[in-house]
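Discussion board: Methods & Data

I've been asked by a reviewer to show the raw model output for two of the constructs in my manuscript, not just the figures. I'm not sure how much to include, so I'm pasting the format here to get opinions. Each protein appears as its amino acid sequence followed by a line of discrete structure tokens. Is this the kind of thing reviewers expect to see in a supplement, or should I convert it first? Here is construct A:
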Amino acid sequence: MFNHLKEDVACVFERDPAARGIFSVLTTYAGVHALILHRVSHRLWCLGLRWPASFLATFSRFLTGIEIHPAARIGRRFFIDHGMGVVIGETAEIGDDCTLYHGVTLGGTSWEKGKRHPQLCNNVIIGAGAKVLGPITIGEGGRIGSNAVVNKDVPPGATVVGVPGHVAKRAQTNDEQRRREYARKIGFEAYGASQDLDDPVARSVHSLLDHVHALDLKIEMMRSTMKRHGLEVPGEGIREPELCELDETVSEERQSVGNT
């Protein structure tokens, strides 16, 4: 129990630059108070002392503004920042190193008994006001944007935004890695157009890079075939186009799209 407390306090300093000292965290951070009281109430719940556990959880809600059902399972180094209005349901499961901001709800969508609340894998972050509903799984490293409403599984490493929630960014795929390498080769970083969200200009640039890359592959195949047959290969030594100014053009287009 004491080891858990040390980890819970230490993770506050990692994730909140406003933290000023251990005494301050222990005496003024509602998220830490709620977590300490939950660990006690959860122990009572597991021992079959359901009324004392529920009473302690109710007292914790009165004291902190954070409601955590005593049956909810919470991993190590869990951090609730600010915390007011957070609700964590009975069958919710939270992995290690997760972070919740104020107004987050891990709720159910059914009155049926059994598993009805979300499961958060390790290293999940949920933004302020987000609602994660139902017996769904948020994959490891998942990010839920502020005020999003999520009722479907989220793949590992994905970022979800909107109502209803949709994936705005996934963990980097092989295609994205290839685009990044090709963009670097020709002097243009495609991800400069959009770092996180689904941007229409970024999608267009990605499609253009895919098309140019496919054309390059076909040209190289034609050159190799001509060389094998002893034919003169045109275009040898041609300087590649300078696209260093393309990033500025894309930036201007993004601004115009945002203004419209």
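Construct B, same format:
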Amino acid sequence: MKGVSLVLAAALAGVAVPARAQHAFGNAGPYDPSVPTPRSVLGYDVGDRFTPHHMLTRYLERLAATSHRIHVDTVARSFEGREVFLVIATSEANMGRLEQIRADAMRLADPRGASAADLAAAADRARPGVYLMYTVHGGEASGAEAAIALLYQLAAGQDAETRMILDSCIVLVDPVENPDGHERHVQDVNRARGMLGVPETPGAMVHQGSWPGPRTSHYYFDLNRDWFILSHPETRGRVATMLRWWPMTVVDLHEQGFNATYFFPPPMAPVNKNVPASVIRWWDIYAAANIAAFDQQGWSFFRREGYDEFYPGYGSSWPIYNGAVGMTYEQASSNGGAIRREDGTVLTLHDAAWHHYTAAWATLATTALRARERVRDYQAFRQQAITDGERSPIRAVVIERDELGRADSVAVRLLENGVEVQRLRAAVDARDATEFGGAGTPGARLPAGAYVVDLAQPQGVLARSLLEPDAELDSAFIREELERRRTGQSNRFYDVTGWTLPLAFRVRAWWTRAVPPGAARVTGADFGAGTRPAVPAIGRYGYAFQPGSEASLRLLAGLLADSVRVWFAPRPFAQGGARFPAGAFVVRAASNGPNVHDVVRRRAAEAGATVVPLGSAAAADGIDLGSNSVFPVRAPRVAMLGGAPVAGGSFGFAWYAFEQRLGYRVTPIAAASLAAASAGGASAGGASLAGLLDNFDVLVVPSVNAGALDGVLGDAGRTRIAAWVRGGGTLITLDAATAWLAGERLGLARLKLRRDTTRADSAGGAPLSGSVPGAIVRASGDTLSPLLAGVRADIPVLVNSDRIYNPPRDLAAGEAVVRYAVRGRLRLAGYLWPEAPDRLAESVYLWTESVGRGRVIGFAGDPNFRDQYRGLLPLFANAVFLGPSM
């Protein structure tokens, strides 16, 4: 093992320090014999098998019990109940003053109000945190094994380099970011693995897994896109860890295709304009260390291709905007544990874990050697975030508070991201206020109660990245992409190009060049129990509540689940000083049981919804509540199609919306089961599936390739679904599934998929790809449709495909419920190919038509995408709850 003097000599000479292999990855030492080896607890060496969660838990407990260098916390529990761990590794001396180290990190993270002497003292005492996160995608499982090896080295290693790292740094380790997906992978592999080892053939079952694969969470979300969205407890736990410890280097260790080698930054273009120059410099510093370590072993790697740094929601990206050096490391996957590659070599789990271990160790050693430099640059970033915010043309973002609570949800989300938020005490005239998506000269009266985010704060870079109206793409990158597209090369857009929170939540917002005066800071406590609506008085006639808010949708779902009869009022009315817009919901006391008052009050309290008691059916203004236009809402029995070939992400987004946002039961049914039921078959257990659809009123079909779905359903399945719709069922299709709805073979919709592609002007004469890389565009709706209850303004929606739908020439009223805006008003944020506005303009986003006694409803995109487009939740909920009653 290298001594400290050799390490320092190499550093002073400007040579990157290679990582030396340990234990399972070498024979260096010595080790503390009181600390158990992985083999002594797991029963196998690191890299021999995939480690299930309960065995990982056991090993972490043993490390914490035997090593004074290790502390284990539980920071979250997954939706399936598994612990998400934070393992802290540092020297015993640092452990003895851990709270002081954390306090110093917090002081540097927020330098406001501190003297130069205080900041200098905190910087001198500081130990940079290095946060190593593994296996955010459940099947990328070599990371978890590398984490076990690394933690043993940190806990037991007695060599000089290990001691230097522990003395100089606070090492934070999340060994399994996605415990539910990882467990799915481990169990799939264990079931398919033979007694004689892992079959190396790429197509073997051990490498395939079960639908939809182990990559995602319990709800089939990609947790590597969840960092600012915070839909999952795993992410919330990690973000809370970041905001508690303020690490200065963060590495998210992944896997990629098995024929690849190893990736580490610098990334490819595009790089977000908010990434500071200091981080770009550190990418090269850490790359030099990784290169030296890999060169020592003769291993291959690559940089500057394959992975970008534009979307701020990756695990490597979100930390950057907090001041850390965020990096993605990508190891070629061993899939089921050993797989033969195209070059004839066999990549094993041992190899993959060894590569990750080596890169992580090089990162730790480099941080330790350059700890003072890393602290200095981090401190400068946090201070510069304030000064840059003061000088920025966009100094503040103002978000109008709305009665439906969407702005409150944005404020809560920002607070959870560590961003400071204020609220205007009184209305303010702001001549420099420019509205998001607005067209016209600046100037607005900013209303009292509006939220204000001053970008001149330590979290200002993150706030800007989440709130700026449009993330800027480099013009040279766009020119290159247009040329690549013309010559038939694939594009380099790795993820969506538009995500700004005000548009995603559908709130009115402005940016200003100065901070509006008269704002007071808000905290999470402002959104606590004290803000709950008052318990409604007893309504002699019944109760009414407004549409459109998440609280009202949860209330509606809860009432329907409790068999409370609810009516829908399609026109506005007023009573007792309260005014209700078109689409309000009414509960008639006389039409429900004697307990209806208690049920309404309980459900309203649970949902946080405001309910108004009604004394009469008479309206002071508008329609009376006994009008024939007020129709009953049927409590729908909802099924959702899942299993292959349905897209797991779209399925999971809808599943999450039902359970976590609406609180309404949905029954997933496999496409293969529906096909078997249509053919009069039986389930695997022998039970008859005949009449399966008759148990439901609504069938939601998440995104799925039309041809693949037809292949699974067959003629009998398609015919059965069509008959079910004509007999009174409601079919709701999302994203690519709407192309199946619009297909001639199903024969249920007059909506048509536009089949022509872009003009053939590529170099080879082939059509250009028209797939839009995740841009936000404006749409507008038919406000007379019940599907738009609670949705009255322009509607920002995500376009993330090349599918365009045209209405028929004999379009009837109420069918094209939401259409994209005209060309000149279309784009709000993100990138559109030059011809996309002409193609998209005025085409259909949300379609419905009656078919026999039933109804079809098709969304051109996915309204539940990543739980990010919360402003679209009412459209989806209205389709489910009101579609069967329209």
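Answer (T.O., handling editor elsewhere):
This is acceptable in a supplement if you add a one-line summary per construct. For B, something like: Residues 277-297 form the longest helix (21 residues).
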